[in-house]
Amino acid sequence: MESILKYFKGLFTGIKSLLFGMSVTWKELWTKKVTQQYPENRDTLVISDRFRCELTMPHDDNNEHACTACGICQMNCPNGTISVLSKMIETEDGKKKKILDTYTWDLGMCTFCNLCVITCPSDAIKFNNQFENAVFTRSKLVQTLNHEGSKLRDKKKDVKPAETNA
Amino acid sequence: MLSNYSQPLEFTKLLGWLDTTLKANMPEVWANLIEFVIVAVAFLTAYAVIALILIYAERKITAFFQARFGPNRVGKYGIFQSVADMIKILLKEIIHINNVDKFLFYAAPFFMIVASMLTFGAIPFGKMLHAVDFNIGVLYVTAVSSLGIIGVLLAGWSSNNKYSMIGAMRSGAQFVSYELSAGFALMTIVVLTGTMSFSEMIAKQEFCWNIFNGHISSIVAFVIYLISGHAETNRGPFDLPEAESELTAGYHTEYSGLQFGFFYLAEYLNMFIIASIATTVFLGGWMPIQIHGLDIFNQFMWYIPSYVWFFGKTAVLIFLSLWVRWSFPRLRIDQLLNLEWKYLLPINLVNILVMVILVLSGLTLTDLFPSLF
Amino acid sequence: MAQQIIFFILAAMIAVFSVLAVTSKRIIRSATYLLFVLLGTAGLYLLLGYHYLFAVQIAVYAGGVMVLFIFAILLTNRPGENVKTERKDRRIAAGITSLAGLAFCGHIIYWNVNKMYTLVVPAEQKIQDIGLTLMGTDKYQYLLPFEFISVLLLACIVGAIMIARKR
After folding, report:
1. Predicted pLDDT at A89
2. Are residues C29 and C79 in the same domain?
């Protein structure tokens, strides 16, 4: 007797739960579509700030950057993606100084681990949100990050914008 | 009764005119031959077109259930997506596999497609749009559709691949068991109407569909038929023969190009066939909704041509099948067989008995309220 | 005329495939050829207008028995691997026996079925008549054999369960 009761109870609870499931999907049928239609919605597309797309070296209006060519990013890169070429110049007061010559970064080998940005002592590089990275040849993936004719920003100058930002 | 209402959009006049002109202008043998060819071409075209529409509709509705847009790049709203897919599948190479049983491997898709074509031919699509009206229509449909499973088993065996083989075995077990309850559900309605021919069944459902006529028993039979029909077509929660995660693609793993296309086409058409048989047997087929005595209303209903009624009702059932497909999780093989042998079949047998009692003791709606229905 | 052509096509199909079914060494192919034979027979019934018999032939033999055959073959381990052709003397004996059987059956068919064709008109049988004949208890009605067959099938099922349980 008990087993018969159990059979019918199972049958009806099963039907009830199936109908409940169908009501859920029925509501889902009329919900707003969440698909992002990419090439059309470029203007409104929101990419998360934390998403790492391209490594950049921010330059200010005077075409100055913060990279001291210390090479820590190059040493920390697990894939050998970054190569920092430096050169020695003589400053006005006659001291020898190492400055950045070319900063090359290979997108094709980068795993976007962010170690270079974390370890940079002078916050000279960061990842931006330019996610459209497709190109036709691999050689185009190798990018030089410092601009033509750019130079190192003076330390004193550097402090002020940091304070204003804070 | 039917001819009292004007039916401006029906094909009856056109077909009658075609028949008389052909027979008047040439010997009867040639006229018959030409008519056969016309019917065959019409069926083949309808078969392909319905499959294309179904594939598009399925992809679109599936997408809506998952809050997506679905295909929307090829043409406006992506309506040419399935045409593009068809062209692609026609152009694809048929890969020849080593160490398969060649004859059976190439014959298996034809079993599938022939079985579903044979069933497709017996469906009444509208008034006068009925190719073969057998005295035993229901029995014929259940008999012929059972041929498809041989194609599945042979495909699984001849592929020389253990995943195909397991998929075919599962599919076979599933089909053989669910065919039983589908047949019993149809037999319940045969008890109610006292006929097996589709045309007579439709004529009897003029004012009262079978699903209402036999109330409790009919509704149970309808639900059982939909479940088992759904399972027979290897779709929805019952698609474990093709469960990608365990069996790659089941019995058609080794097929490519047009051969795979045959399996694909047959699957979609089987979905349509199940829905259209359910329409014909339970929902009045191509008969418009009519109410006893309301002649003006009935006339308006007859202005809508019968094939529109048929395809409309079928579309509702297909939508129901898609809805089920995207609501429920996939069953395990033992759950699947439990559902059939421990629930559907016993309920079905009791249901037939109930229906016999209803019919014999005059408790059907047409017997209870002869003035209304 | 058309009927004659279709009949000869079906007859040729039945004959060729029944020979192939016996001679093929791969058992699954034999089963497929047998399926074609059964389908051809169904075609003959359709030609005679016996729609019910046609549908039952397909449902029971092609859809039921053949599926079980193929299932059984699929479940066996390496079917048909050790098939050898028989010894010559045995083959001759088997040939003579089958020829004798053919002569015997042919004689009966020729003398009796030929006569029967004049009596039986090929026409569609009403399914109601078939049902009543199958379930009636009068003369030429078949309730008793029908029930006997169902008892036989029940015994088969019980036997199958007993074998499968293997206590």
Report:
1. 82
2. yes
Q: Which residues form the domain of C25? A: 2-88
Residue C107 placed within a domain: no
Q: Which of C6, C71, C73 to mutate to test the interface with B (most CBs of B within 10 A)?
A: C71
Indicate which CATH number applies to the domain containing A104.
3.30.70.3270
End-to-end CA distance of chain C: 62
Whole-prediction pTM: 0.81
Q: How many domains does chain C have?
A: 2
pLDDT exceeds 60 at position C140: yes
Using CB atoms, pick whichever of A18, A29, A32 lies closest to residue B65. A29
Cross-chain residue pair B154–C32, CB shorter than 8 Å: yes
Q: What is the mean pLDDT of chain A?
A: 83
Mean pLDDT of chain B: 84
CB contact (8 A) between residue A26 and residue B68: no
CA distance B279 to B293: 24
pLDDT at C97: 93
Whether pLDDT at A162 is above 70:
no
Report the sign of the C-alpha dihedral through residues B341, B344, B348, B354, in that order: positive
Closest CA–CA distance from residue B347 to any residue of chain C (Å): 21
Q: How confident is the model at residue C151 (pLDDT cuts 50, 70, 90)?
A: very high
Of B143, B149, B156, the CB nearest to C58: B143
Give the range of the structural domain holding residue A108, as residue numbers without chain letter.
54-154
Residues in contact with C90: Cβ distance below 8 Å, sequence separation at least 6, in sequence order: none
Do C140 and C65 belong together in one domain? no
Chain A nearest-CA residue for B321 = A22
Based on the fold, state whether residues C6 and C80 are members of the same structural domain: yes
Residue B179 has pLDDT above 50, yes or no: yes
Residue of B nearest to A37 (CA): B69
Asked if the structure places residue C120 within a domain, the reply is no
- What pLDDT does A155 receive? 67
Q: Is B248 left (phi over 0), alpha (psi -120 to 50) or beta?
A: left
pLDDT of residue B3: 52
List CB contacts of C41: < 8 A, sequence separation 6 or more. C14, C57, C61
The answer to whether position A128 is within a domain reads yes
| CATH at C75 | 1.20.120.1200
Closest Cβ opposite residue C59 in set B134, B146, B169: B146
